[in-house]
Design goal:
14% strand; alpha+beta; elongated; single chain; 98 residues; two-stranded antiparallel sheet
Length: 98
Amino acid sequence: MSDKLKIKLSIADRVYPLIIDPAQEEGLRKAAKNIEQLAKKFEQNYAVRDKQDVLAMCALQFASKIEQSGIEQTEGTKEAEERLKALEDLVDSKLALK
């Protein structure tokens, strides 16, 4: 337990005590800060006062970014595979001429 770190994160006016690996601290603090900033933005721009609604909107925003990134990565992989196949076909055709 000595290699663990005790921290407190504030999200949506609540404090969450956590016991974490030291390597996780920076990422967790940045994530909490991003959630807080996005929550404030939603509260200001959409007049949302219910913290549960604000947090649900934050969760949807972050989850959609992850999903969209996965979709774009998959599309990029397909394009790369098609280009590699075309290159392979070209090399095969040139080698067949010799």
